Amino acid sequence: MKAIEILKDFFFLERGYLNANHFAYRSREPILIDTAYIGDFSHTADRLSAVGIEMDRIGLIITTHCHCDHVGGNRILQEQSGCDIALHPLGKHYMDTRDDWSTWWRFYHQEADFFKATRTLEDGEIVPIGPHEFEIIHTPGHSADGIALFNKKEKMLLSSDALWEKDMAVMTLRVEGRGALPAVLSSLERIASLGAQRVYPGHGPPFTRVNEAISRSTERVRRFLKNEADIGNDLLKKITVYTLLMQRGAPEDTFYPRLMQTAWFKDTVDFYFSGQYRIKYDEIIKGLLEKKVLLRKAGNLYATVKP
């Protein structure tokens, strides 16, 4: 995917499902928003270099939340440049206390590094990115420390994982608590009040049918509130795919035993499906294969979505 210059010297870099999209402001002291997944850092570095970002001159990284697909390059880039890293106060607390549970890293067996959080970003704060001003919008739900950035002049929202076009980010009530679903609804209401006309999400391409996306996500959350088993099925599908992307595929005969060693798989099946581990595993894999989200090849399982 090519970088898109969405404002003067400010680029949107679309990635995939494993790596969150991110942004780069090109200047003498560049500013980044999110840094993708640590396992793909070499690709991230190439993408940044292609838009004229000198890694050792970065002045600031803005982190929209501390999930592994958004913070993967933070420590490396901070070591190279000595840059500041700014994020919501809760995210800073996670880094200061080395909390790998609230960040989801330990629950999902994800690879990520702690970094030095040097600044906090409060809800409603105006942050300059070169000549472009963005308002910080706190968007809890998917992640308690989540923020989006809104440019009022251009009616442009950098939504991170608070709003996608045709899907929504996974909900992990085991970490975020049952209040996460009402929090998502409040965040969506806040986003709707902004009047954004163009959205650059955390995953997927930009979109302009903003109200449709908000309505779609709102309706889905309401369905989740009525039937929590839908949350469990959504989580099992998405994190199974994400795990295979992180591992670049896995032998099918060992994949189920490996999932049984993780916290997230057993906990999710216990929480929503009364411990029916093998039944849910077979159901999820069968469905993903039928939808061609996974494929079998030479005894291995692979995710087919773009990493």
A few lines on this structure:
It contains 11 helices and 15 strands.
Can you give a write-up of this model?
- This protein is an alpha/beta fold and 307 residues long.
- The chain has two domains: 4-225, 4-Layer Sandwich (Metallo-beta-lactamase, Chain A); 229-303.
- Helix content is 39%, strand content 19%.
- It is built from eleven helices and 15 strands.
- The strands form three sheets. Strands 1-2-3-4-5-6-7 form a seven-stranded mixed β-sheet. The protein has a five-stranded mixed β-sheet with strand order 8-9-10-11-12.
- Helix 6 runs antiparallel to helix 7, helix 7 crosses helix 8 (228-247) and helix 8 runs antiparallel to helix 10 (263-273).
- The radius of gyration is 19 Å and the shape is globular.
Question: CATH homologous superfamily of the largest domain?
Answer: Ribonuclease Z/Hydroxyacylglutathione hydrolase-like
Which geometry do the CA atoms define?
globular
Percent strand equals 15-25%
Secondary-structure element string: EEEEHEHHEHEEEEEHHEHHEHHHEE
Main β-sheet description: 7 strands, mixed
Give the overall pLDDT as a whole number. 97
N-end to C-end Cα span? 12 Å
**Portion of residues in helices?**
25-40%
Question: What class, by secondary structure content?
Answer: alpha/beta
**Uncertain spans, ≥5 residues at pLDDT below 50?**
none
Q: What is the count of distinct domains?
A: 2
- Give a count of the beta strands, DSSP E runs of length 2 or more: 15
CATH architecture of the largest domain: 4-Layer Sandwich
Number of helices: 11
CATH class annotation of the largest domain = Alpha Beta
Give the CATH topology of the largest domain. Metallo-beta-lactamase, Chain A
- Cross-sheet strand order for the largest sheet: 1-2-3-4-5-6-7
Rg is 19 Å
